[in-house]
């Protein structure tokens, strides 16, 4: 990993020398920056990939997690603005990360920084609300819920020690996602691209289409075969989508 000297909020896995555009990636609930390490290995050198690291995991494991998306977005926006250069940016967020990316984009735009594109994956539009209380489940039920989404490596959730370490962060992130409420106001001026699996229990096609109401620019929708972590079976297509949108921003 190449250290990001200016911010604990992002990780850069390789040198950004010569990059002409930047892809900033936001992890899902319970996820970490390392989820995007494989993505960094296949992006061309012209694309600088930054992965956001939320507090409470990996190198930030001793920090208190943030259970409010608005607060989380405020802090990430400040960090990204402080580290900003002239490279055009595309955001990519999966699940909870899509909502965080959207809210960070809103905050940056209020500061005069407009993205080239916002790619949201596995997440319903900001106003497509559901009443969900997964974060209030008991430990066993919460683990089974996470296991049902097929996003965790096989066997990880069978290790009691690992579960003990990660469960508080997962519960925290579910609380953040489930208590999020869209606050009316300016949305984004960049295009939004929504990606999802065709049998994702977390979002329907109609709920994903709600993203179209939150941009002043174009909206595109791509539906893949699969569930909430459809991208584990469709990384080549997802990578090509991200590469095209980020490369065209330069």
UniProtKB/TrEMBL annotation:
Residues of the Thioesterase TesA-like domain: 24-246
What Gene Ontology molecular-function terms does this entry list?
hydrolase activity
Domain of life, per the record? Bacteria
Keyword Electron transport recorded: no
**What Gene3D superfamilies does the record tag this protein with?**
alpha/beta hydrolase
Record keywords: Hydrolase
Entry protein name: Surfactin synthase thioesterase subunit
Q: Which family does it belong to?
A: Belongs to the thioesterase family.
Q: Name one GO biological process term.
A: lipid biosynthetic process
Q: Name one Pfam family in it.
A: Thioesterase
InterPro entries of this UniProt entry?
AB_hydrolase_fold (IPR029058), TEII (IPR012223), TesA-like (IPR020802), Thioesterase (IPR001031)
């Amino acid at each position: 990993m190449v250290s990001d000297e200016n911010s604990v909020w992002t990780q850069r896995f390789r040198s950004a020398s010569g990059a002409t555009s930047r892809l900033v990636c936001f992890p899902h609930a319970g996820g970490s920056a390392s989820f995007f390490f494989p993505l960094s290995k296949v992006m061309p050198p012209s694309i600088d990939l930054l992965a956001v690291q939320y507090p409470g995991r990996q190198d930030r494991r001793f920090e208190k997690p943030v259970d409010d998306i608005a607060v989380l977005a405020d802090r990430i926006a400040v960090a990204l603005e402080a580290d900003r250069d002239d490279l055009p940016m595309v955001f990519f967020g999966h699940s909870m990360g899509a909502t965080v990316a959207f809210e960070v984009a809103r905050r940056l735009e209020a500061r005069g920084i407009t993205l080239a594109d916002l790619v949201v994956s596995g997440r319903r539009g900001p106003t497509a609300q559901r009443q969900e209380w997964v974060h209030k489940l008991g430990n066993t039920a919460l683990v089974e819920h996470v296991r049902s989404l097929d996003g965790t490596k096989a066997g990880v959730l069978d290790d009691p020690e690992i579960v003990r370490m990660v469960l508080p962060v997962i519960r925290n992130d579910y609380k953040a996602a489930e208590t999020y409420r869209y606050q009316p106001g300016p949305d984004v001026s960049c295009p939004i691209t929504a990606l999802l699996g065709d049998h994702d229990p977390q979002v329907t096609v109609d709920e994903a289409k709600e993203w179209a109401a939150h941009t002043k620019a174009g909206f595109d929708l791509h539906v893949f075969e699969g569930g909430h972590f459809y991208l584990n079976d469709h990384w080549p297509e997802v990578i090509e989508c991200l590469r095209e949108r980020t490369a065209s921003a330069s």
